Amino acid sequence: MPILLFELLAALAGTYYLRNNENTEKNYKYLVYFLWFTFFNEVIGSYAPIAYFTKYKYFRFVENTVFYNNVWLYNIYILISISFFVIFFRRYLSSIKLKKNILVILLLYLLISVLNFIFTDIFFTSYSVLAITFGTILLLFTIILFYFDLLKTDKVFNIKYYLPFYISIGALVFYLCVAPLFTFSKYFNTLNELYVNLRTNIILLASIIMYTTFIIGFLVCSRKDIKEEVLN
Length: 232
Fold this sequence. Notes:
Number of helices: 9
Number of strands: 0
Radius of gyration: 19 Å
Shape: globular
Number of domains: 1
Distance between the termini: 43 Å
Strand content: under 5%
Helix content: over 70%
Structural class: mainly alpha
């Protein structure tokens, strides 16, 4: 799967960055850990298409159960991934008040999303429109605040070597492209081939752009830090 390959490459690029920059900030380390988590989550989630396309020759135990598809796994991942990126960019905000407000909003978002899973049947049947839509809005708001703060610092003059900038571009492209698709996820079925192809291609393209941006960021910033170590 192309997406799985790019997830692996991004995780490897991040690991390469950490190996060459032992004193890097913890936020970057958490980012790499998250990328590895994403890769393994994708590997685990592959059980559903493998079972389906082999007519349940493999993973037969999920046939005729609520786990026959992997929607439940990605509903959990949506909450984890959005929460991670919101917290990631929240760390770079200078205003303590804004940090607190974003944290409160994030906790409310998680609470409402979990309640939505509990009191509806959406957890096992389709992607949560509420989780992806409001999560994307919260992430967009946090990244915009991050950009405003970035404009006030000297980092903006050397932004080519600022890793969070690459991460923000990749995350924005992905979630702004994918969020509208989840709104119409109820149409994702074998009877609607046009929507299936459109959704698949957009998610693939958005994922490639995001992980390629991450990879470029890790490699460019790694080379910069290596040069600084040599000069010092």
